[in-house]
Amino acid sequence: MANPFDKAHELAKELQESEEFTKLKQLHEEINNDEVAKKMLDNFRQMQMELQQKQMQGEQISEEEVQQAQKQFEVVQQHEQIMKLMEEEQKMSQLVGDLNKIITEPLESLYGTEENQEG
Amino acid sequence: MANPFDKAHELAKELQESEEFTKLKQLHEEINNDEVAKKMLDNFRQMQMELQQKQMQGEQISEEEVQQAQKQFEVVQQHEQIMKLMEEEQKMSQLVGDLNKIITEPLESLYGTEENQEG
Ligand SMILES: [Ca+2]
Ligand SMILES: [Ca+2]
Q1: DSSP 3-state assignment of A59?
Q2: CA angle at residue A79 from A76 to A80, to 5 degrees?
Q3: In angstroms, what is the span from residue B29 Cα to ligand 1's centroid?
Q4: Per residue in A86-118, pLDDT tens?
Q5: Which Gene3D superfamilies match (chains A, B) (predicted)?
Q6: What is the ipTM of this complex?
Q7: Domains in chain B, start-ordered, CATH in brackets?
């Protein structure tokens, strides 16, 4: 009988050895070793998370908060390494999403959803 | 350079050949060929989806709707094949979740989340 777990471990290894992961890891380490950049990114993420939580709980986001968020985004936009990290995170997210689509294709076919659905 | 896509396709094949998928597919076909069971399941799913949407949109769910849902669940609970299907779907969902955890482990380590976080 097939053992998908062994294959999943192999895939994790491939992912870890991928160009995308290597770049992401390097940028991550660079920023972690740069106190100013790390603080800047931490603050930005903290703010993003707080706004997301408010949105999810249906709370109002004040104009002041929107302006503060924009300002903080303008600050991180000036930081080349942080912007690169965010780009690589976006690429990694896309990659993991694409892999996930491939893996769950048998299930999609079973339920006849999305592009597999015959008209 | 590593190619995670080939490995993802291999994993999809393993998943398709797994005991879990085989059982799920068989139950799915049995129910699709049984008009009464199919109708019962479709109605139940339709209702579940409607209630979930209401919850997500923060709409009130009436006592009548809760009672109707309970009644419909009691009906499907009497149907052995439907209950088996739901059990197998639960198992498949668990399996896909477990595989996903393995695959994204390198990323979890990078961000130091969950059990990888040192105290
Ligand atoms: Ca199909
Ligand atoms: Ca760690």
Answers
A1: coil
A2: 130
A3: 13
A4: 999 999 999 999 999 999 999 998 887 544 444
A5: YheA/YmcA-like
A6: 0.81
A7: 4-111 (1.20.1500.10)
Q: Using an 8 Å CB-CB cutoff, list chain A residues near B8.
A: 11, 99, 102-103
Tell how far CA A52 is from the center of its chain: 15
Secondary structure string (H, E, C) spanning chain B: CCCHHHHHHHHHHHHHCCHHHHHHHHHHHHHHCCHHHHHHHHHHHHHHHHHHHHHHCCCCCCHHHHHHHHHHHHHHHCCHHHHHHHHHHHHHHHHHHHHHHHHCHHHHHHHCCHHHCCC
Please give the mean pLDDT across all residues of chain B.
Answer: 90
For A21, the token pair is 């992961």
* Whole-prediction pTM: 0.83
